[in-house]
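MOLECULE: protein
FOLLOWS: sequence and fold
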Amino acid sequence: MFGCADALGSDVPACLFGRSAIGRGRGEHLTPVDGLTGVPVLLVNSGVAVSTAAVFKAWSGHDAGPIGTGTPLDIARTGRNDLELPARMIAPVIGSVLDRLARTSSVLVRMSGSGATCFALYADEGARAEAAMEIRREEPGWWCLESTLA
């Protein structure tokens, strides 16, 4: 679909796709999902770089199984990121970011890809804005971006 995009990285097709999707294979086989458009999201990164190659090298290689079924939010809630543990071993601050996001009024908190950016979904823009304001005040060195899912 995107020519050489997946050869550049497994997440490149999803970036070019530009809407919420479930990725299969290495992430390059995308299936659009409905029900997430407009959901408020907060992206947070501590500024600590994490090498994708190092995370994959530290990963056990164990796939904890297929993703679940149900609504997109149900799938996300019951899912996990198999790369979170090795990423947190390399950059423990990822755990701090996830813990901080979990203390907001989020609906879901996860690490994105191989790290180090983490995200939280919110029921409304007000809750997201409040969380962003708190995090910016408490962690002024962290990068925060308020957005909505497409």
About this structure: The mean pLDDT is 91. The longest strand covers residues 40-45. The beta strands are 21-24, 29-32, 40-45, 108-111, 118-121, 143-148. The radius of gyration is 15 Å.
